[in-house]
Amino acid sequence: MIELGTEDTVxxxxxxxxxxxxxxxxGDVHNERRGNLAPPATAAEFIEATDAVLSVPGIHAVRxxxxxxxxxxxxxxxxxIHDLAVKLTxxxxxxxxxxxxxxGFIDSWSISYGWExxxxxxxTDATFKALEKALKEWESLAKEEVCRQNFGDHAQITATVxxxxxxxxxxx
Length: 172
Prior knowledge:
Layout: H1 43-54, E1 59-67, E2 80-88, E3 105-107, H2 108-112, H3 125-140, H4 144-151, E4 155-160, E5 163-168
Antiparallel strand pairs: 1-2, 1-4, 2-3, 4-5
Helix pairs in contact: 1-3
């Protein structure tokens, strides 16, 4: 398990030394950077967003993969967070076989777009709405730097209220 440092050990995000402030810029500016363009999240913001998902009643764990692809069709290979999923609190021993890959985890796409209410009767409409909101906030956070520094590259992370478990992740 990896434990993130306390707030007083988290460095403040650095100001953007490349921002031009004294002159106007006009024209057709293109930003080719992929991924989240929001300012980088701090470790405290990352923990807060993760805890918001884990605090939804019935959620036992959150899992995601983060890695730099080996090849990207000529585009830059950038470290990215992939495949966010949640695991419901198991109802019994056989309950771990539910989910998108029969491992108990349901990916965020299935929750937002392909939700099968009959599969998860323990989640009320209110719980589902709270989960959807917490996932949306977590996914909008620019957490790549926090994840890279704390979990490394080519990793699958499982978060619970007790901490984080990091496993090596094999991808194409």
